[in-house]
Amino acid sequence: MDTHDIRFPTSRELDGSDAMNPDPDYSAAYVVLRTDSSDGLEGHGFTFTIGRGNDVQVAAIAALRPHLLGRNVAELCADPASLSRDLVGDSQLRWLGPEKGVMHMAIGAVVNAAWDLAAKRAGQPLWRLLAHADPVWLVSQVDFRYLADALTPEEALGLLREGRRGLAEREAALLERGYPGYTTSPGWLGYSDEKLTRLAKQAVADGFTQIKLKVGADLDDDLRRMRTARAAVGERVRIAVDANQRWNVGEAIEWTRALAGLNPYWIEEPTSPDDILGHAAVREGVAPVKVATGEHVQNRVVFKQLLQAGALDVLQIDAARVGGVNENLAILLLAAKFGVPVCPHAGGVGLCELVQHLSMFDYLALSGTTEDRVIEYVDHLHEHFTAPVVIRDGHYTAPLTPGFSATMHPASIAEYRYPDGTFWAADLAGRQ
What we know:
By secondary structure, the protein is an alpha/beta fold. It has helices spanning 54-62, 73-78, 80-89, 91-94, 101-122, 126-131, 135-140, 153-163, 167-177, 193-205, 219-233, 249-259, 276-286, 300-308, 325-338, 351-365, 410-416, 422-431; strands spanning 2-7, 27-33, 43-49, 179-183, 210-214, 238-242, 264-268, 290-293, 314-315, 375-377, 391-392, 395-396. It is built from 18 helices and twelve strands.
């Protein structure tokens, strides 16, 4: 198991900037699983950070190494849940969570790398491996501890069996049309109005029917930028807004109401991601504007409570925040049980590449629909991946390369590994 601290200097152009994170350097705590098999295949995974915390995240991933070395590859790929259970169940490391924070994100990176390896060995993209898997096996991949009051294994099996009806027709449609996306690229808080207008118009020309703006620092600025965006895209294109956890509950309600005349589609992360009752109060206070959250929700248990409390209209999974594919399967099943649409977060290096697989599985073999469902798209850093996302007419094209689309080019790792990669070594030397 190899680990790498990969960082990109995105803060210098204010790419990714928002009200809570004004200077993010998009980063990946990256892991590669290698085996002694003659096929030479590797499992690649990562979790997303925004800069200096990446060294902590890499160290957390490295702490999991003893659970990987010497493991039987065929058994791992046949049952990735076995690895997930072992990593989550390490009692001394679990004490740092449990099932939250840096250690849980590290688990997600390693588990995702195992799924990448499993899909490569199966010769399939992960979305297809999951969509065609036996529902009984999929249920075996889910940890139902703490979920049984909201979702039982029997209910999950019923949802998956029902969800498979019409799979072949939907797969044909997916391969022809793709999965709908929306773009955040015009909406970073640090962008000028001119850049916002140019990128918003380009988004519409590229076929997107929804864009997103960052808000929450200054109400007058938000109103001006919202008017600017609305003038650029017209009335038929949805504009979502994202506060990135900036507000208290009352402030969130007041601010969103102030923006309501410009018809925002949803307000994202209006307050702390841990505040379930706060989100419920915001949802009641800002309707008909929808409430969306999830990119910082720490585990399936918090998602369960958000759904039970009626605290969100749109659930946003993140491929790298929770404990990997297995836990995201649980969250997708919860969303299906409660009838809440899933619109994943993908604002970060490699997240678009990963989460497309989960949404496509959900469409093909669980929810059966793309109505009111879109995957976030950010036009940053895709060139560093060997199988980058392809957007056509505002839709994600279904990837066909075997694996989880997580593999970075070796040259990109060599250039942007911190602090000894060629870019950072030269950059740091130039500052001395």
